[in-house]
Design goal:
It is an enzyme of class 2 (transferase). This protein is an alpha/beta fold and 265 residues long. 35% of the residues lie in helices and 17% in strands. β7 (135-138), α5 and β8 form a beta-alpha-beta unit. α1 (38-51) packs parallel to α9 (248-260) and α4 (122-129) crosses α5. It is globular, with a radius of gyration of 17 Å. It starts with 8 loop residues before the first strand and ends in a 5-residue tail after the last helix. 50% of the residues are buried. Bound molecules: phosphoenolpyruvate and manganese (II) ion. Residues 33, 204, 230, 240-241 line the site of manganese (II) ion. Manganese (II) ion binds at residues 33, 204, 230, 240-241.
Length: 265
């Protein structure tokens, strides 16, 4: 069980430090699944920031089920994230899939994301633990809470104390109406077991944009510290995860709804 106070994960962004933690305001991370081109990423960054998000998320390297699906634009997408950061002042969160890309990701990202599929890639965990940027560790889709916390422990043991845990839904038996089953019970359970900040991702957690707002509100009611929401300027044309992405207008509206229900945004 947890001993002592909740940790604060302090992230430096162009507009100053942002703190993730139990005793701090909710931190919202928003943006497209994939970085597609300059116009869409800069536009999305502007819109989500104006709505109150502190971080832009967007994948340069995408872990796709099919090798024939869009794999992300790689290094050129990192440059576009750097541009969005420079133009708007939002912090950047992007995923590392291969340790060989870590150095160039660390140059651009304010937080390095380890995705669900790599949650138990122990050599990658050791490497992200040995670099200085905070790490967002998503729960594996079939990971127990113990598996997840031990994965976080790999990062901590390698010397990086700044780990944020992100629930993004687990595999159960229904894939017809929901992509995953968002396990909101992790919020009180993790609170008891760990001092690390807790993020909830209702976008991957449900797979459908129409279900995202209610689960975002439920996550706040459960007591999470942060939310990750996929937002795309034209979800119907998205190169990945369009069905679960909110439009910027819908995201803006959701942020206003969230502000009403507590833990100030
Ligand atoms: C993502 O954040 O776009 C992503 C691929 O998430 P996950 O690893 O949770 O599937
Ligand atoms: Mn996605």
């Amino acid at each position: 069980y947890r001993h002592g106070e909740a940790s604060e994960v302090v992230v430096d962004t162009p507009e100053g430090p942002v703190v993730f933690g139990e005793h701090h305001p909710l931190v919202v991370v928003a943006g497209p699944c994939s970085v597609e081109n300059e116009e869409m990423i800069v536009e999305t960054a502007r819109r989500v920031k104006a709505a109150g998000a502190r971080f832009l998320r967007g994948g340069a390297y995408k872990p796709r089920t099919s090798p024939y699906a869009f794999q992300g634009h790689g290094e050129s997408a990192l440059e576009l994230l750097a541009k969005a950061r420079e133009v708007t002042g939002v912090g950047i969160i992007t995923e590392v899939m291969d340790a060989a890309d870590l150095d160039k990701i660390v140059e651009v990202a304010d937080v390095v994301q380890v995705g669900a599929r790599n949650m138990q890639n122990f050599s990658l965990l050791k490497k992200v633990g040995a670099q200085p940027k905070p790490v967002l560790l998503k729960r594996g889709m079939a990971a127990t809470i113990e598996d997840w916390l031990m994965a976080a422990e790999y990062i901590l043991a390698a010397g990086n104390a700044n780990v944020i845990l992100c629930e993004r839904g687990i595999r159960t038996f229904d894939r017809q109406y929901t992509r995953n089953t968002l396990d909101l019970s992790v919020v009180p359970v993790l609170r008891k077991l760990t001092h690390l900040p807790i993020m909830i991702d209702p976008s991957h957690g449900t797979g459908w944009s129409e279900f995202v707002p209610s689960m975002a509100m439920a996550a706040i009611a459960a007591g999470c510290d942060s939310l990750m929401i996929e937002v795309h300027p034209n979800p119907a044309k998205a190169l990945s995860d369009g069905p679960q992405s909110l439009t910027p207008d819908r995201f803006d509206h959701l942020m206003q709804e969230l502000a009403v229900i507590g833990k100030a945004v």
